[in-house]
Request: fold
Amino acid sequence: MLFSSLLARPGGRVALVLASLAVLLGADYAVRPPAAAPALAQMPAIAVGGQPVQAAQLQRVAGGDVPMPPGAAAAHASSLLPMPSGHAAALSLFWFSGERESGPLVQIAATQWVRASQAWLPPRFVVNRHQMGDLLGHGLRRLGNPVAWKDAQGRMHLFVVATGWGGWAASRVLHLQQSSASQDLAQLAFAPVRVLPLSWLWNTSFLVRNATLPLQDGGAVLPVHFELGLKYPAAVRLDANGEFLGLTRMSNRTHNLQPSLLPQSPAQWVALMRDERHGGRVTAARTDDGGAHWTDLPDLPLGNPDAAVAGFALGPQQMLLAHNPTPEGRARLDLSRSADGLQWTLQQTLAKGAEEAEFSYPALAWADGALWISYTVDRATLSWQRFAPGGSGTPGGTP
Reply:
């Protein structure tokens, strides 16, 4: 009766729309995740032979292709996770792979770099959407963008984009935790913890892409982004066990996504982001109080063709960024260095191809005295490169 009377009055439809919006906004406020409390970042201090590593000293010493699962025609969005010094593997590498991006057969694949053989193990699938859906009690249609992290107890976690009906804009962030006793690739297995509670709308339209920022308390900040119509970055706080503590929006803009976090000091961090706009630039935001509040910064003088960037800090004023440098296309992937995270100098071109080529979605990690970089090649395979101080590469060259 109420709806009928509203519709019968002049302007009733407008009133109904406004009332509906008020209800939605009220629901949003009532169930919105708590804002993350201030935190202190764990400042990196990477050294080799007792000497701090300088970004400008890094040179390419090795590289190649990552082995793919048999029959997989697509591979994308890799994540690198350093392993403990006593483990047989130096690194674990996760990505999504299958017949095509968003395909029903896509699973999360993994491989490990073995120290003794200096080679990648044959990959295997470690996350299957049907198995995860059965454990969660509801179906999963797509999987993608795994982000790997180790908690204070050394357990592996994966944060994975998972969808039901709809495309990537209808995604949720699925939190998985290591369920196997061993972290060896042959035994490695994961079980779902929960869908992260990021939105009142069934936690829909939040995605992950880039690595976590380690915190002094053993927890981490997981960068995420919202992608339903407008796009904006946010920071998820995790405690030392991986429990969700809160969510804070990182920008007032509506065209920034896939943030990568770089610490300038324990409380001051900069977020570098993909720009959805045509002919865009790498966008930036900064916090001066450990993630409690964020301020948008002017766009960086780096082109961005609506493509992911990945940052990595070696130590104070020693930052690296893997990015596609031109405002159009992903046919070139560069590694640049910076002292403040805002002004960047080309270190080396990682990959370059014809106009239709794509080298994208880089990931960076430090393991066994070297910087490791993985990235997607034409959405079909992955490649990797390794950089060491004073290596035998040629800065600024192409591999």
